[in-house]
Write a structure and sequence with these properties.
Blueprint: H1 13-16, E1 29-33, E2 36-44, E3 51-57, E4 60-67, E5 69-74, H2 84-99
Antiparallel strand pairs: 1-2, 2-5, 3-4
Pfam families: RNase_H2_suC (PF08615)
Protein name: Ribonuclease H2 subunit C-like protein
Organism: Dinothrombium tinctorium
Length: about 110
């Protein structure tokens, strides 16, 4: 989310942050944070990938939980394929193609 909150500790997210899901699947998720409207989209991680939530410091981390999808939010516009988050996921398939070994028969 495009903000910085100087707070360390637990947050009652479900009490103060509620996403409103539209009836039409084409529309973005709508919510607000501190009075600012937010538009979001849920992204499923590609097959073979798992997201993790870690906790720790000084290069010692422990996995606290994992996830298969997440929601990203824009403050000033509807989600689109040109946003940085979806663009980052496009790199996964591009990177796989770039690093795929080339066989001699593929060159002919």
């Amino acid at each position: 989310m495009p903000c910085r909150v100087k707070h360390r500790g637990e947050a009652k997210v479900s009490e103060y942050f509620e996403a409103i899901i539209q009836q039409n699947e084409k529309k973005p998720l709508l919510s607000s944070f501190r009075g600012y409207p937010l538009c979001g989209e849920t992204i499923k991680l590609p097959q073979g990938f798992v997201g993790v939530v870690v906790d720790g410091k000084d290069n010692e981390f422990k996995v606290k939980s994992n996830f298969a999808e997440f929601t990203y939010w824009n403050w000033d516009k509807n989600p689109s394929d040109s946003d940085t988050v979806p663009q980052a996921f496009k790199w996964i398939s591009i990177a796989a193609a770039i690093h795929k070994p080339i066989k001699p028969c593929d060159l002919n």
